Amino acid sequence: MIDTKFTRWLFGHGRPRRRTPERFRPRGTSSKVSRLADRYDAEVDAALQRLWPKARIYHDREFTRDRADFLLVIRGRGVMVETKVKSDPGVFRGSTLPPLLDRLQRDGRRLVVVLNQGDPTPARELVAEMLGDKGCVVVWSGPHHDADLHGAVEALLRQMVRHQ
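^ REase AHJR-like domain-containing protein, sequence as received from the core. Prediction below:
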């Protein structure tokens, strides 16, 4: 049997030690929201594959605030896709978007923010302020909203041809 007081003194001097490094800890989201986000990402991924069967879809597996969740490449042109999940149907202000918008503003990339529910008006204003016509926010909660998602992405793709 190991004397825990001795090992605490030897390795931690009696202080409680963190077992998980800061960068691996959950970021303050509840597990319910995380499960919703994972499921929503899978649904959006399926919608993108359904709407653009010949497109290449790249997933960012690492959680960062300054990179989008998906890169959708259609006919050689790319559009970033960021998914956002709200657990309530309230207003979506886009408070988590600025690091991503800053990066995309510098890179000149196009962005579609796909929101599961809620009023996206403040987020639309934020995206328009930072990206202008290179970004948009769409509410998508299932196949009945496919036309909205398709229209938003295709509008950004058409715009890329005009601007080049």
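Residues 17-28 have pLDDT under 50 and may be disordered.
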